[in-house]
Amino acid sequence: MRVAAILSIAVSILISPPSPLGAQGTRPDRSEVNLHLGGYLRSLTQVSDPGYRIPGSEDRTSWIHADVVRLKWTLRFGESVLVEVHNRLQVQVSSTELEASESTVGFGVSVVPGRRWDLSSEWVDEDRLKVWHDIDRLSLTWYSGVADVTVGRQAITWGISNVYPVSDLWAQFSPFELDTEEKPGIDAVRILSYPSGGLELDAVVADRGSSRNLSAGVRMSLSLPWADLYAGGGKLWREAMGLVGISAPLGVFKLRAEGVLPYDLDVDEYKLPRATLGIDRLGGSTTLSVEYNFNGIGATNAEAYGEVLDDPRFAQGETYFLGRHNLGALAAWTPGNDRLSLSLTGLLNLHDPSSALVPNLTYDLGQATRLALGALVSFGDKPLFLPQPTLRSEFGTYGDFMYAMASVYF
Length: 410
What we know:
Blueprint: H1 2-14, E1 33-49, E2 62-77, E3 81-94, E4 120-125, E5 129-143, E6 148-154, E7 186-196, E8 199-206, E9 215-223, E10 228-236, E11 239-250, E12 253-264, E13 269-270, E14 274-281, E15 286-295, H2 305-310, H3 312-315, E16 325-333, E17 340-349, E18 354-366, E19 369-379, E20 400-409
């Protein structure tokens, strides 16, 4: 009751619809001003069983319920200026202490980019209940004839991989993130320009919370009749990186390859590259993607996983995987009515070996409402806790999860 009351009051305050400042549904002229509010409410309940008893815990199974309300405000000044603000309110309640029940799967399991300005506030912070609010977008975009310039907290995506991203270095989703409607916002200045047909230049300067980790990069993308290419580089955290990628259609298939080569600025040496090779089958009601990933941050044996977990690149979200060599697949089926969607993601660490299957069923009820049921089923050796905590496989550590999720868009 307490969670429901808090959520009800917050939503009623935040969702009070504004009066439009300009005509909606028509293309504005240079002098028009339009204010629009959209967003969604997403509710998640999940039950987890790690497959082993954690020392000090009373029960092997636990449950977590979480809600997230995101309000997306957009203010347009004609065709030249856009202001975007996202309020995000989150509620989380657990059967056990929240710190002890932190889940690999769920809302907010992706690494949040480093931010110099903390725009979040905690409303409730108790052992089993947490309510907090933050500003996840706060940006101004100017559209000119030369370039599009965005300043502030914004979403930026680089790269072309589906299962194992290697070039998405600004703010990457965890593979087990369930709130994937909007990426975490990063504080940056971004300039997008299109010098000629098929050519795009993308320059980003990002504040990651400290002058030491100030990041900047440039990417050039080129669309040709036979392939899409990109190349770029820059300083990302404490690394200088080069990035390349190619995506080429071949009948009903698409071949993809991308990689990054990092140079550690602190120790003055090259680090192992990270690369993903993929193939997609497109068209019809069924899509399929298969990828091989070489993860230069990862280890080739379970005994070294502790070193990967301590690696700052892992903590920064440059990768979410512990193994050096990985295979992954993503299959999705959508019947002709487009209401039902079935997907299955498979992940395989080739060293342990261990694996995880992530099935998901989504049904569109209409009226901007969707329901989803899903799970994570893991296979692999479970960790040992005596005489000291020891990981024996990557995915065997995660255990099993089942979840139900409802989303309402407005």
